[in-house]
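Entry for zinc ion complex. Fields follow.
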Amino acid sequence: MRPIPKCFTLLLLLLTVLSHNSRSQTNDLYSYQELSHLYYQKQKDSLKKEWTCPARYKDKTVQKKYKEIWDERTSFFLDAIEDDDYVHDKELYDYLGGIANEIAKANKSYMPVQPMLFIDRSPSVNAYAIGNNVVAINLGLLVFARSREEIALTLAHEMSHNILEHAENSMRKRAEWLTSDEYKQSLEDVLDSRYERLTRLKKIFENYSFDRSKHQRYRESDADSMAIILLKNAHLAFDPAFFLRLDSADMVYHEPLKQPIKNYFSPYSVTIDDAWLKKRSKGLSTKSYNFQESVALQDSMKTHPDCIVRYNNTKAAATTGQQLTPVPERIREKAGKMMIWNMYCNMHLAPCLYRILLEKDRGSNDPWYDFMLHNIMLELFHADKELHRFAAIGVTQKEYISKNYYELQTMLEQIPREELEKSCKQFQNAAFWSNMSASEKDLKSLLNVLTIDAGTTGGAGVKAAKEFTSNNKSSLYCEFANDIEKK
Ligand SMILES: [Zn+2]
């Protein structure tokens, strides 16, 4: 291969720098191959072999139950990898890995082996320890965190769960309880009684969960204390105020918008009728729906015990006089984009759209957000055509959202189909497209086939989706196209 002349490289570099600001920065986002079902394929196989249940009990019944619970956890984790719950974006991974290494290196006596770190794509502000040296941190937490120290505290807390073998202990406790005479007796009593079996059965499990949550509370404060030790050893500042901030973690959709809804749509010449923002009748959304996910095994950084207790318990250990290092804006923004894309693929269109409007409020001119706004409106139209518009919106209960969010959600529900189609056409002709990459334009064509292109059947959509994936093999947008293909 002929070497590229130096001046040419410089020119290329200059061009890249010049075009960097006005162009969408999607090229920096992860590739399709970095989604967990592909990226961790090899690890998945080796984990299956490595995670064999240790022999802990002489009693065969208890050991059998223990193995059952153990294997349940393994398959939970392997399924999550297969479902692309995780992503290995190099930039985010290096940033988080740098912090994790700093903690691990200074605490070799507690952590002889480096922990395995996973980036979970969930928007909820959380992190969790799976045991067996595995720690996962959610994109939601990365977006929420303000400083490197807050992330360090989160990682140290999760590492502490692993050091203190909390996952192992709770699996053992469960196995022992489910094979105990006490449990068997209560179960037999229930089966013997003719009446109220269900109520009594419920009671047993209530006792069980009460017992568990009580232990869990102890475990959380143990993990906090251990985390403080790990951070001190690594000379990382500990700021207990993070616990107080975590208390407001669920309030992100309470943040009001800076402008009326229609202003966000006017740059695309899309007119929003005020009437769409107001509920006409008691629609489906008056039912209590909640998009907040409940992930099994997910350790909560915020619930047990509550944040104020955690703050009070740890405030004496606060590091004084040390400046906190802000999370680089690039990292926050990238994690935010990855999260928005994930919410889009999971068809949570309303929260996804709200996040975009919040980015616009922060002053972002990145056309990638325009592109995503386009995708949301076209997908809403597509869902409407397939008669599942309501499900695609991902309606949230009133108490979790701001007035603006409620209006936006109502608008997505009520915008008449013909008006939605009109706005989709406006989005497809908007000016920002000149700044978009080939894969983004290809996704535009795919959405066009799925929606506006008159007279198309399901078959045409699948064909277009296949075409997209074969032309854009490494694009993260393949995830969306794959879902269409599977239909
Ligand atoms: Zn915890």
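NOTE: The longest strand covers residues 116-120.
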